[in-house]
Amino acid sequence: MWRIGLKMLMGDRAKYFTLVGGVSVVVFLFVQQGSVFCGLIGRTAKPVEAIGAPIWVVDRNLQVVDEFKGLLDTDLLRVRSVEGVKWAVPLFIRQAQVRLPNGKFQAVRLVGIDSATLVGRPPRLLEGNIEDLNAPDAVIVGRAEMERLGSPKIGDTFEINDRRARVVGIADVPRDFLSNPYLYTTFERAVQYVPRERKLMNYILAAPKEGYTTQQVLENIQRTTGLAAYDEDGMRWLTMNYYMRNTGIPVNIGISVVLVFLVGMAIIGQTFYAFALQNEKYFGALKAMGAGSGTLVGMIVLQSIIVGLIGYGIGAGGGALIGYLGGRGAGKLAFYTPYQLLIISFAATMLICVLSSLLSIQRVLRLEPAVVFRG
Amino acid sequence: MAKATAIAAAGEQPTTIMAPAVSLQHVNKSFGVGNTYLPVLKDINLDIRRGELLLLVGPSGCGKTTLLSVMAGILDTDDGVVDVFGTRVDRLSQSQKTRFRQQTIGFIFQQFNLIPTLTATENVAVPLIINGRPYREALGRAEHYLDLVGLGNCLDHFPTQLSGGQQQRVAIARALVAEPRLVVCDEPTAALDGATGQMVMEMFRKVALSADRAIVVVTHDNRIFPYGDRIAEMLDGRIVDVHDNPDHIK
Hints:
- The structure holds two protein chains of two kinds.
- Chain A has two domains: 2-43 and 249-373, no CATH class; 72-226, no CATH class.
- Helix content of chain A is 50%, strand content 18%.
- Chain A has eleven helices and ten strands.
- In chain A, strand 2 and strand 3 form a beta hairpin.
- Chain A is elongated, with a radius of gyration of 29 Å.
- Chain B has seven helices and ten strands.
- Chain B has helices at 2-11, 64-71, 94-104, 120-130, 135-148, 164-176, 194-208, and strands at residues 22-33, 36-48, 53-57, 79-84, 87-88, 105-108, 182-186, 214-218, 230-235, 238-244.
- A six-stranded mixed sheet of chain B has the order 6-7-8-3-9-10. Chain B has a four-stranded antiparallel sheet with strand order 2-1-4-5.
- The radius of gyration of chain B is 18 Å and the shape is globular.
- Chain A binds chain B through residues 1, 3-4, 7-8, 10-12, 281-282, 284-292, 295, 368-370, 372-373, 375, and chain B through 65, 68-69, 72, 74-75, 95, 98-103, 105, 107, 109-111, 113, 115-118, 122, 126-127, 129-131, 135, 186-187, 190.
């Protein structure tokens, strides 16, 4: 009877396309909104990925990577002396103001890395050499949001805090939540580009020695120095959790997702119900001819599952396509679709379809086969 | 298989050649809401012979369709005996009745009730598929029955592509394809013009009647009276007369 059920579903093209279209739109919005949420939250942690270090040592009260909580120079020495630490270098991340040649100012994320080891350097250089960073006034510009700096080329100059900066490289750096351009330079030069403060270093990057796990070293650092230490994943989640707790992003997108779910269920449920009403006399005839209620329920469930699967494929594919097109190259769409989102949206889709078919199932179960004799 | 055994246990009686196809004894049926009951069938006694086409006639609301539903096992009686080819239908559980209908009853409806998204062949194959026959085999058998009713050239037509008469012939093929022993028809010519109705009935008698089968036709249409072997007249929930059909066309 499965084939009969499918032919009843797919033979009525208008209803079939309405059902599949309804599910597709719901899944599309679900995946799209969910991916935008993941994309936005994921961007908050991009500075951590842009630096890339096994261990981050920070002030105990630090809540987010964009916050400046200075460390003492002696903290660096203490971390270096912790058992299991292979190396430890200073890192400086601050917001700074760039004065462009046209006189306008642009906020940038200034990253000062250790000049000897260049630990914390950009993940991939598109133009120039990383060693040139040790040249006078040298900075490397991140490609994301580079147009805000007038799309500088190697050799171009601008001012930061009345000091000259000269572009020696272009790096492939992920776009982050604040959407400010990245400027990489050495730690020593970076502290000169910002107003003088008592504490200049705000991060210490470190790595575990062979024979020690990252977790062991993190615990050693926390116990020995009293500072907080995270691996890269921990640092990312510290930042993402901050934004989830302290911004309206989850609530706003959550409301959208709930509305999508409810509206989707209403549309699909109504269409399924209309479909069942239209087919009532045929279900009655099948019942009269000896089809059991279980068989008819199985047909309806199969119909809803098929609609769900096809609708999910189209909707999720469409959502991913929008993300791909919007995020291609230097696109600005914050869009990330983790597999967990696909699993959740799949489960939600199936739930919507099965719940929507319950009305039809209830109607078919109550249907008396004698209905077929009512002209 | 277990269900078939259960049916037998519930009421299968040894039958003789002369036993009627359908025997109704003191059958009563009423419909009600709350404390209000409306008797629809009142002390019905009727035997339907093997190999006959019985016409069940009477004014609207007299209980013809209810009686048909009781015989077909789709409505329960309040009391009385409903024996169809040796099976006490009134003693079957709902699941046993479902199985009984699969195996014993063929249906022809006033509005045909052909599923519009299935071809003629698929519509005819439905009772076999319900019976658990393999899909391909069911289609092959359906094609044979469509051939029998003269629609061998319309196998892949959808119901909307067929005339009313052709649709009812598809419905006849569907009613017969599983070789049921009792065929029940509710106003089979009501949606057809006179000529088409007569053509359908001729076809029906030719294809459906056999010595070990009975056909019950509920009808208002006096133009098809000549096609019945006997006529049972109902009035106000009772059988008031059963007589041989003097105008019967053999």
